[in-house]
Write a structure and sequence with these properties.
Layout lengths: L13 H12 L16 H9 L3 H7 L11 H5 L5 H10 L8 H19 L26 H4 L6 H13 L4 H14 L4 H11 L5 H12 L11 H7 L18 H8 L9
Helix pairs in contact: 5-6, 6-11, 9-11, 10-11
This protein binds flavin-adenine dinucleotide.
Length: 270
């Protein structure tokens, strides 16, 4: 009979646990994020669910300091089910229409999962060609070091990258900004960015993550997603630096950005 050595169950710190897991798997493990900002387990999941306010969510979800729920790690790891979250939201409102926005977002998660099940090859392959005027082979395959090191020189983006590393969480808008910057400003393939996010997000999910990267990149949508500094300023609070002098390359009109980022496309209408 094989002789098994019991694995340790307690560690001096999260870092020590991550190091131990790395020795078992033989793979590098991303630096541990601040676990205190996100507690695991069913009780913590139920507490997060009890705090959901679908009405406030509908009114403010696009803002970084809006009433977003941070339920994604619990949903991702099966601690909460989509069904129970939807039922909870419906029970929390007087009229089901008040929970509509929130349930629509849950539906996105369900949609990406169904695509993954039906077409697993879409997770790492371009679903369609880029609609940016560039072929896939014109994009770099590796993420530049300044992005990895949060030293792009675009201050708001460096803040988002630091937030990702420190908390393992990013608001949806911040995820979209970083993805768009990686793919469209730096012309790096979405796959490199998707791997990077998967290494650091507590809710890291191949379907929601990779298909959202493809949506931003335009390989799974009609056009590339881009943003400008006005948009960041509109949706972020005082904690994010949106001064023009610290974020110059984002301080443009959409017309100018389209010309700069997609010179092969010609004038953009609509
Ligand atoms: C580039 C990019 C990468 C992403 N990577 C992931 C990922 O790895 N894992 C992940 O769970 N989500 C991912 N998302 C989707 C979304 O950003 C997160 O689900 C959401 O920000 C999680 O925070 P929350 O729980 O506070 O969301 P809330 O806004 O409170 O939404 C409630 C729940 O609805 C679901 N949801 C909300 N928005 C979306 C969306 N756009 N797509 C799919 N489900 C959504 C989530 O399960 C979320 O927990 C990604 C989005 C982008 C643009």
């Amino acid at each position: 009979m094989a002789n098994y050595t019991p694995l340790p169950k307690t560690f001096a710190s999260t870092e020590a646990m991550a190091e131990f897991v790395a020795t078992l798997s033989g793979e590098a493990v991303a630096p541990a994020c601040d676990s205190a900002s996100s507690q695991g387990g069913r009780m913590a999941g139920e507490a997060a669910l009890a705090a959901v306010d679908p009405v406030a969510y509908g009114a403010s979800r696009n803002h970084l300091d809006g009433a977003v729920t941070r339920l994604s790690p619990y949903l991702r790891h099966g601690i909460l089910s989509l069904d129970e979250v939807r039922n909870h939201a419906l029970a929390a409102v007087a009229d089901p229409r008040q929970a509509e926005k929130f349930i629509q977002e849950l539906a996105w998660r369900d949609y990406w999962q169904r695509i993954y099940l039906a077409y697993p090859d879409r997770i790492w392959n371009d679903v369609e060609a880029y609609k940016t005027g560039f072929d896939a082979d014109e994009y770099d395959t590796a993420l530049p070091a300044d992005i990895i090191n949060a030293q792009t020189g675009v201050t708001c983006l460096d803040q988002f990258i630091t937030m990702l590393y420190e908390t393992g969480y990013l608001h949806n808008h911040a995820r979209m900004y970083l993805a768009a910057y990686v793919v469209h400003w730096r012309r790096v393939r979405w796959q490199a960015g998707a791997v990077w996010f998967l290494e650091h997000l507590l809710d890291a999910d191949p379907a929601s993550n990779n298909l959202s990267w493809q949506w931003v990149a335009s390989t799974f949508s009609k056009k590339p997603y881009i943003f400008n500094l006005d948009n960041v300023a509109k949706y972020t609070g005082h904690d994010i630096n949106t001064r023009m002098s610290d974020n110059r390359i984002l301080a443009c009109s959409y017309e100018k950005l389209n010309k700069l980022l997609f010179p092969n496309l010609g004038p953009v209408h609509g």
